Amino acid sequence: MSTVVETKNLTKRYREKLAVNSLNLTVQEGEVFGFLGPNGAGKTTTILMLLGLTEPTSGLVSVCGFNPTHQSLEVKRRVGYLPESPGFYDDISAKENLLYMARLNRIPEDEARRRTTQVLDQVGLPDDARRLVREFSRGMKQRLGIAEVLVKNPKAIILDEPTLGIDPDGAIRILELIKSLNREHGLTVMLSSHQLQQVQEICSRVGIIVKGKLIV
Question: What is the pLDDT of residues 119-140, one digit of tens each?
Answer without folding.
Answer: 999 999 999 999 999 999 988 9
